[in-house]
TrEMBL record:
Gene3D superfamilies: Luciferase-like domain (3.20.20.30). It comes from Streptomyces bingchenggensis (strain BCW-1). GO terms for molecular function: monooxygenase activity; oxidoreductase activity, acting on paired donors, with incorporation or reduction of molecular oxygen. Residues 27-263 form the Luciferase-like domain. This is Monooxygenase.
Amino acid sequence: MPLTSEPLRKLGFLTIGLFDEADPRQGHESTLQIIELGERLGFDSAWVRHRHLQYGISSPVAVLAAASQRTSRIELGTAVIPLGWENPLRLAEDLATVDILSGGRLNPGVSVGPPMHYERVKDALYPDTADAEDFGFERVRRLLDLVRGEPATDFSGTEGFEPFSDRVQPHSPGLGRRLWYGGGSLRSAQWAGEHGMNFLTSSVVKAEGSEEPQGFAEIQLSHIRTFRAHHPDGDRARVSQGLVVIPTDSATPEQRAKYEAYARERTPRTATPQGPARLMFAPDLVGTSAEIAERLYAHAAFREIDEVAFALPFTFEHEDYVQILTDIATRLGPALGWRAAV
């Protein structure tokens, strides 16, 4: 197996938290149990996706508030909260509250852009301001300022018997350094770097920046380097990679067949850029931990980072996630030079 000069420093995982409409509690409970398992296995972080008007986690901050009370060490992240659905001031209050409750373990990841299917939901979401809403980077800047303690109003003091603050309360001093931007373009990478955020790069990127055809890894590498070139911390700026990784070391034959079929069905979309946005998808990595480690060491972008949040497939069963996470923690992680947290 090839060797890497830099061992993997932080190992995390990402789940979408699917549930059955007829029994949503069971799905949310499964997500919480998976996060608890991640802590027992020594993972450094657990991340949840965000889905609106679907059968996945619609309120990741609430789910992570629950997770914070059932764990004591593992970091808890969102990958990512689409800010088009959020009021930055209210979100800043929620994030700070959960960070306080967790003992400073929250890692909020956010992104910008109009809400998905905006024309169909805008009347419910913004009935009076739909055409005036700004879904660009200014929305992130507002959140950053509020989380970092900048004034939200020009008034502070006592009114009657009640004291008022001019900034979001509670204020969590370290949270501003743990904000992540989930980006898949050169522009988002540059903006995140310039504003001192951390950078989440996933299994989806935009094909851009070169007239010559590029593979996924080369495009992702250009985003990482662009981010760090514009970040005050330079090469020390934090980047986390989120590929779909499915080790099969302890899988049953039935599980291996399911995993391989899942990846095979998704493979055609990885060949060329997809749609008007020219999205490039990374292939899912399925195989033994030794095989996956070899493929990761050959991945140009993976060689540039020392943090990962491997994405769990969307549609598997609870016992599948247990097997996958156990193999990642006990076999793949060590093969990448990672040591379990204690």
